[in-house]
Amino acid sequence: MAEQSTAPQTAAPTPMIYKGLAGVPVDYTAVSKVNPDTNSLLYRGYPVQELAASCTFEEVAYLLWHGELPDDAELAAFEERERSLRGLDHDVKRIIDELPLTAHPMDVVRTAVSVIGASDPATPDDSPEANLDKSLRLLAKLPSIVAYDQRRRHDLEFVEPRDDLGFSANFLWQTFGEAAELPVVTAFDVSMILYAEHSFNASTFTARVITSTLADLYSAVVGAIGALKGPLHGGANEAVMHAFEEIGAGEGGAERAVAWLDTALAEKRKIMGFGHRVYKNGDSRVPTMRDSMERMVEHYDRPDLLELYVALEQAMGERKGIKPNLDYPAGPTYHLMGFDTLTFTPLFVASRITGWTAHIMEQAAANALIRPLSVYNGHDERHVPTKD
Ligand SMILES: CC(=O)SCCNC(=O)CCNC(=O)[C@H](O)C(C)(C)COP(=O)(O)OP(=O)(O)OC[C@H]1O[C@@H](n2cnc3c(N)ncnc32)[C@H](O)[C@@H]1OP(=O)(O)O
Ligand SMILES: O=C([O-])CC(=O)C(=O)O
């Protein structure tokens, strides 16, 4: 038994506060490894660059969920099921139609996922099989949701999914209503692979917190979408394009970029698409995404956009020594492909659904309620005045 002391109490030591949980490991994960020292990213042990070079996004989704790459038969069965789930129920379309065009597309995606969850009789079933099925359902339907919302903003009809096309080719087909050329499909697929997973980022952690309360998978995904929307996280790909629009590509773009940056830094603005909580010397995914962006610059003959990209990156390096993150090359790539700027973060959702749900299933399999402590720094105890 602890000895009781009558000595005067010394003040308790001030507990360490890890603001923003920076640098704090909170659990194990076998889904991915982000290593800032070697500037590498592994999904289930495989370098993401190798996956981007040799695999389709469907294979990567399978890998993230099952821990292994699929063999031919497993892939064929997976693709068949994914393709069969791509359609949207009338109710989901009706509810999207009722949302005002002033709603951000991230709000539309969040609402649509919520509706799918509320309508799925399997929602309360949290068995691994049911969670896998829900994950695949969302993966298959997100392109329909994102494409439908972009098209309704241009007064265009929904384009039905095609089951003869892979995930990325079909996504582009449903968005633009025409078959995309192979280099565009490839660049888009690479972006989906690079965005798929990144350990305990804010949105994935949100999904894990929600899962830790034993709430259902759909609730965790809805929460993750909310966390991804912010410009310090997924919203940055949209914000990069707003900056490019403010600066204006075309003749003199490079000079304008430098002047724009100086003003923005003088105003203490964060430059979107630069910096990272974990990587302090560049983001492992940027070279691969930049390569895809350059292919698109060539494909669409937009060297002016690349010039602006390079000028801003160089000036940011000189002034702050801060390097781009994945959102920096992804934003202009999606712009070149024809996506509306407001649709960029929903594209991130359509990819990250794989990583989120892999983490949700991992959290559920070895759960502990996530509930940290806080240090109170408010008023000392006080009392409500008695009323006469
Ligand atoms: C896919 C993704 O989600 S990647 C992240 C996407 N987000 C963005 O691109 C938003 C812009 N970037 C940022 O805001 C930050 O770099 C973050 C939020 C991503 C990481 O932030 P943290 O690790 O918390 O670093 P923090 O914000 O404390 O920055 C450290 C210093 O670098 C500066 N800094 C970091 N990023 C930037 C930036 N993009 N623009 C200007 N200054 C920056 C900060 O002002 C701070 O300077 P100070 O020490 O003089 O105050
Ligand atoms: O890891 C992070 O904090 C943000 C990020 O790059 C991602 O989620 O892809």
From TrEMBL:
Functional pathway: Carbohydrate metabolism; tricarboxylic acid cycle
> What is this enzyme's catalytic activity, as reactions?
oxaloacetate + acetyl-CoA + H2O = citrate + CoA + H(+)
Gene3D superfamilies given for it? Citrate Synthase, domain 1 (1.10.580.10), Cytochrome P450-Terp, domain 2 (1.10.230.10)
Query: Is Transferase there in the keyword field?
Result: yes
In terms of domain of life, where is this protein from?
A: Bacteria
Give UniProt keywords alphabetically.
Answer: Transferase, Tricarboxylic acid cycle
InterPro entries, per the entry: 2-MeCitrate/Citrate_synth_II, Citrate_synth-like_lrg_a-sub, Citrate_synth-like_sm_a-sub, Citrate_synthase, Citrate_synthase_AS, Citrate_synthase_bac-typ, Citrate_synthase_sf
The record's comment on protein family reads:
Belongs to the citrate synthase family.
- Please state what the protein is called: Citrate synthase
